[in-house]
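Posting this for the archive.
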Amino acid sequence: MQKGLITAIPYLPAAIALILWSRDASRRGVQPWHVGVPALVGAVSIPLALLMPTPAATIAVITVTACAIFSALPNFWSLPARFLHGVGAAAGIALINTMGNVAGFAAPYITGAVRDGTGSFGAPMVVVGAAMLVSAVLTFAIAGRIQDPDAPANGTARATHAGR
């Protein structure tokens, strides 16, 4: 019971962070940094949790990690449709979902293999942190391809309610 309560600690702040970060993204329009910044925080905090001197400090860092992951995820799903269109959007989103499912299956095996191969508890978390870093870098790399949904298409003026 106590272990269950301790492992539940990160999720309340993560739920609050998810709501606040997503509300900000809705107000400003989801931007790549709404995904990239939390991914960078997660990339740093995952391996950092291993260096904490006390269990309380470890839980605090894991809470930061949970806040970062839960803040990035809902905003991530709005990005592909902003640079993929039509059938390409459907296929791209399906591919992303498939890769996520495959990763969810394979990740425990990969982290276990890394742990067994290195003999270190920290090495798998460095691999996970590196994967999050790659996701942050890729998010910022596609930033130039993402279109503002309110911008005029093909340089033409867009009709507004006042201009009709």
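The chain has one domain: 2-146. The longest helix spans residues 87-118.
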